[in-house]
Design brief:
The radius of gyration is 22 Å and the shape is elongated. The protein contains 4 helices and 3 strands, in the order αββααβα. It starts with 5 loop residues before the first helix and ends with a helix. It is an alpha+beta fold and 127 residues long.
Length: 127
């Protein structure tokens, strides 16, 4: 099975959907409700799975909570997704959403400064 095969893409999508549901069921108080699975990459041999998550709140504490609940999450994944093997999960932080929000704020600030400077320039031309 090639890495970017159609079958692998379907498995990634199904595992991502299942993990999104399972993580909401984790009762560890360190894992906030606003934990989102942004991307999943299951190895072609189905032995490992990289799970990229976005977290609102304390990221280190949430990762500790997810790592401590890894057994529960993997067992529930085995019940939901019917695979030959249930992959070993590894959690990674995905800061792309936070990065996008920060870039959007910076763009808005530059546009606002540009609008103010163009207003000052048009006032000088009138004098």
């Amino acid at each position: 099975m090639r890495k970017n095969s159609t079958k692998n893409n379907r498995i990634n999508g199904e595992v991502m959907r299942a993990l999104s549901e399972i993580i909401r069921e984790v009762k560890d108080p360190r894992v906030p409700f606003m934990t989102t699975v942004t991307r999943v990459s299951v190895a072609p041999d189905l032995k490992t799975c990289k799970v990229y998550i976005s977290i609102m709140g304390d990221k280190d504490e949430a990762l500790e909570g997810l790592n401590s609940a890894k057994g529960f999450i993997r067992r529930e994944l085995a019940h939901i997704v019917n695979l030959r093997l249930t992959p070993e999960l590894t959690f990674y932080l995905d800061d792309s959403i936070e990065y996008g929000v920060n870039m959007s704020k910076r763009i808005d600030e530059v546009l606002e400064q540009d609008a103010l400077s163009s207003d000052d320039f048009s006032d000088r031309e009138k004098v």
